[in-house]
Amino acid sequence: MEQAAYDVVIVGGGAAGLSAALVLGRARRRVAVVDSGEPRNAPAAHMQGFLSRDGMSPAALLEVGRAEVAGYGVHLVEGRVEQVERDGSGFAVRLVGGPALEARRVLVATGLRDELPDLPGLRERWGKDLLHCPYCHGHEVADRPLGVLGTGPGSVHHALLLRQWSDDVVFFPHTLEVSESDRARILARGVRIVDGPVKRLVVEDDRLRGVELADGRVVEREAVFAFPRMVPRDGMLEGLGCARNEDGWPVTDATGRTSVPGLWAVGNAADPRAQVITAAGQGSAAAIALNHDLLEEEVERAVSAVG
């Protein structure tokens, strides 16, 4: 690959990918952003905690972002990436049912997918009144009857944390085994514990009314928090040999650089805790590192040509 069609192909057009594209576009790099139009936060009506954008809808943020990067010559490609492969010193980014884009570098910003417990009503209420992040949604449901569904070890912390937003919090362990010490901490925090398997969420008139247990009891709640199992959307990287940590996430440095030369990963594709504003910052930092990496390659090539 003597001259790749793009300096950088960015896989994923959310806050992380578009922030990277903005910086690289302004640096006059040849950039393509491939996006399938399925952001993780699509069910949410608003996003919070993003300075100057607090309360803005996720869709509006992406619309503005796409317009901004397009103004700097970034190529926006609608599609889904099937696989990223090595191609000489660069990469071939293969699209489902489409061409392969040649790139000197690749930035993966595909986010993650949330795996929820298999209970009736959960998927339909996700992002509405079934929530996962107290920092994202806690203020909007403050002082209301809240519930926390036991889905994993992090659920105990969720129950303790949410007490900051409401005096009426109920923890439903569901099938989660809770130690006596954790039970003591939860109760001391002023959170009630309702034991027993959960059957479903009770929804009436498109509003959450409560949590029904397997024995028929219904505990009235207006919002429920559940910590999902988070899985990175990085199947297209299979075969590149990217190092992963014990939880299966790509190992990166502070700029998002992976163990594969020329490959970066940012946002929720590498950091499950990254919020929108965090992901945007990671995309910007990765773009600067990518540009310097490309610069070093160009300087070395120039020196070799002179010598």
From TrEMBL:
Record key words, sorted: Flavoprotein, Oxidoreductase
Residue ranges of domain FAD/NAD(P)-binding in the record: 6-282
Keyword Oxidoreductase: yes
Organism field: Actinomadura namibiensis
Catalytic activity: [thioredoxin]-dithiol + NADP(+) = [thioredoxin]-disulfide + NADPH + H(+)
KW Flavoprotein (keyword) present: yes
GO molecular function: thioredoxin-disulfide reductase (NADPH) activity
Annotated Pfam families: Pyr_redox_2
UniProt name for this protein: Thioredoxin reductase
InterPro entries, sorted: FAD/NAD-bd_sf, FAD/NAD-binding_dom, Ferredoxin-NADP_redctase_2
